[in-house]
Amino acid sequence: MIPTTLNIFHGERLLIASFFMAVLLLVGGCSSSDSSSAKPDPSYGPDSPVTNPKVIAELAEAAYIWSLPLEFTYRFGKYNELMTGDINTLAYVPAPAAWNNAATNAGNASALYINGILDLTGDTTLVYTVPNPSSTYTVTQFLDAFINTFANPGSRTTTNAPDPTHYLLVGPDSQYAESQTATIDGQTFPVIASDTSRAQLLVRVLASTLAPAADADSAYSALNNVAYKIRLNTLEEFLEYGPIPPKNGFDIKIPTDQERTQAIEFQNTPDNALDFFSQVGTWLQINTLPERSTGLGGTPIASLPSYIVPQPDAQSTYYPPSAGQRIALASFGPLGLSQSGFKIPGNWGSEQLSALQEGWTNGIELIQARLGRSATIDTNWWIYINSGWGTYPNDATGYITRAVGVISGGFPSLVNDGLYAAQFLEGGTDVPLNGDNVYTLTFSPTNANTLPPAGLEIGNQPPLMLKADQSQVGFWSVTIYQPGQGEAVCPCIPQVGVLNTHYSEATTSVIRVDPATSTITAGVPVGASFSASSPVLFDSGAREYGLESNVAYYMANDPVMNSDGTVSFQLSDKWFQSLSTAEGDPGTPVQFTGQAGSIVTLKAGVSPLKYGFINPVVQLGSSEINKDMLTKNPDGTYTIWFAPTLPEDAYPSNWIPTPSKDYYTKLYPDAPVLNTNFWPVFRMYAPTEGNDTPSILPCTNCAWYETVGGEQSGIQTDDGLLATYRFPVIVKKDRQ
Q1: Same domain, residue pair 315 and 416
Q2: Which of 305, 41, 30 has the alpha carbon at shortest distance from 145?
Q3: What is the phi/psi pair of residue 582, to 5°?
Q4: Which structural domain range is residue 663 located in?
Q5: Domain of 387: which CATH number?
Q6: What's the whole-model pTM score?
Q7: 507 φ/ψ angles, rounded to the nearest 5 degrees
Q8: Per-residue model confidence as pLDDT tens digits over 482-509
């Protein structure tokens, strides 16, 4: 049965994500000793002093906003333990985010991800090993149970780190939690201490997605030279063997059918307040709110290592960012929510329970409204927040921002590590950006030192921090996503990226073609990662074998690796993805059910035939510019094109294909509604610090920043934040 709305997504192993203005994957955290997937039971507890439905609704709205991060992290760990990997292990995604891999949805198509769910209970001691991040942009974000970042070692913060660095990773009850370094068996470790017993780590490694695998900056090189050198071991393992790789290799686990079934429960936020707060209560039972004295609390900020993240608005003394929430939690006691868990008040009836549900729903609507706030001409219609992400003040404003962060990316970066900006509508209108149209985004070849006027159609490249040799510390890119319904479901990286084959080559020899079984046996390309749905293309000899050259085909099933080092596979010219059930209704969460179309019938041939993997073009940015992969316009500027087909005056290297009715109608001819809207999202990793110009970050100590000639020199955003950089305007062209 064809669903009503085309919401394309891969929901099987929603591993990680990372960005502002787009919904991530999800699911909750549990300890290794709490691996049951049974629902928490919201039984009845003591009577509540509050029975007034109006008061209950108001409290429930506030409680939803405050506790959404807890519910998220509870499910995130649960889901990942079932679908991705065990607690206290790393899950390595071997390719940049795409529509058909574990880093999909709001993943960054310019980076590789590594994710870990951590249980640091008691004296649990781990060793986290990372190579020197000076050559390839790398950042590790450590987040506690309340989604506050407490450490971020990486290219921006540890430029002089040894190669490799071995961090001692501990929880709040460890004997090392109050130390900056620890010497064990003659080896000295820098210490990273979580302020809660459960934590997450998320690693981002720059990968030149569209470069050939043999290139030194390619995703394949980044995987082998950086990502696979990042290790997580127990202290005992490390002391005996050093930073050894995972026991089962670097592959993400293949879940059993039973685990897939269990994981469905944790794929999305519960649809009712009782189940939601039950999950929150379970998480509170195993994660005590930190005190200001927990860990390094009380340490002068000037004495902290560069990778330790101070609390918001820190002055001179450090305390854990999640300290200071006890008053908020205590205020929800009348709802039955406390550090001891969640119990329905014993004197509540249907009227009070209805009020709890009403307030919970109001909280959802409030946060969704905050996410969709209007853009302005001051920011050229891009929506972004340039401060306040990654750690959050322990007040009402901070809790709202933190909740927006959950639904917009789960684990937003610190803005100094990665700032995100999205555009949902055509500038100055209420019309969504639509993939059936043609749009452009144009950059000047260099960064100017002055703020361009609003509305300018040629903008500066996003300004990034520079190393001593003037090379960039980080990178920027713009990626397109498709919106959809459901927290874990979308936004999604669209499959249409395979339409642009400019960055793909057919250079690997086909050994034989068997028309009787429609099977191809071929060599293995460098950096190949085979699976059902992998897109491939063929060279000019394709027609002789019943194929077309330079167009996308999909491996119809998991290929067979042969003993002689070759691989055998069948092809389909279509790949069907999972769909939601109705317009505006995500329906029951589903697992990945993507499947191939009919098997392509092959012909016998005698001429040489070559094939290769397609690098889908869903993002373009500084990696392509720095490697001269993007084509310049005659005036030296760069234009990125968003269009369903290659426009006549566009360069193939600069084209990002967009979802279109024509494309989807061929795949889903009976679908009454086809979603072809898309969201472009900017990522700036290690943007220029706010005390330099230009910068998208606030300049906090620039005298010229306040006034120039009596006029304010920065952009005034909705939140009153200033910047000295504007993203260029997205320009709509004539419809094709």
Answers
A1: no
A2: 30
A3: -160, 155
A4: 372-498+616-736
A5: 2.60.120.1600
A6: 0.88
A7: -125, 0
A8: 875 433 345 678 899 999 999 999 999 9
